[in-house]
Amino acid sequence: MANMIAMLLAIALQTMPQPGKVMEYGDWAAACDNGRRCTMTSLMPESAGEDDDFWPGMTITREAGPAGGFTISFPLDKAESGELQVLVDGKMISRAKPAGKTLRFNNAKAAVIVAAMVSGKRLTVLNFEGSELGSVSLAGSAAALRYFDAEQRRAGTVTATVAKGAKAAGVVPAAPALPRITAVRPTGKAAPVGKALTATLLKRLDCDNPEDAALTIAAYPLNARETLLLVPCGAGAYNFMSVPMILGGGIAADATFDHVPDFAGGDAHPTLVNAGFDPTTGRLTSYAKGRGPGDCGNSEEYAWDGGQFRLVRATAMNECRGSMEWLTVWRAEVAAR
Known about the structure:
With 337 residues, the chain is mainly beta.
């Protein structure tokens, strides 16, 4: 019996989402998700002064597999005309015209820039007139790229960026299949939530709500029998917490998840932050900001499968250092029925 229980627990753990971690390397943050897609983003150097023109948010993504290519994007303060130049330590590496407020390089052009970064110290972008638009510190970028090599199982192969070797590209494994979720679109009408039920749930949860808060429970239909409730349960300067519950047959119980939102910590009830629900798709979201500007925190997106909320996508950014590019640490494919 003990062996059977242990086996069942092992199977359950394998099927539960296990989001990746965000790693910090100098002035860069990096993460690889469950599909081995890896992303890194530049951070504001901690030693930067007010007059420095470093800008965070340059993002590099590499796909998994033997032919996995790079994509590089730079956020621009405004739309720029003409070709922009990318320099590493003063040497021009590549140029391209931006699309709107984004400068992007793909595949071979991106790989040339990445190769130059490995031994560089500073990357600079110039406009078509030669004026500097901003710079990125390359401290830690080589370590982040080495992390890509390791996580994508390409270290020691000709496809590696830093941990290069003589092994053929064919030994690099393909991207693992993403989990598939069958989502159920909401139907019906939400059950009414009166004052009595509101008072009962707030007392049961014993939430630390502000005295002047408007304690209204949001209600959304899931089907003819069940209603999703988002019960207000605490607030801060820019984060508003709520406990998701399912109301059915006059009884409200905690909603169940295949992965408890990261913000919940060890709380007795699953807790969402700045929660939202799309009644047309059944997507439930949580968006916890580490500070007001929103340059750090974590987010989760869930799909309702008819019995529980399943994790569709998770992003995170541990360092509050200017980058608005939170890194994806989990993905799933979703089919609706």
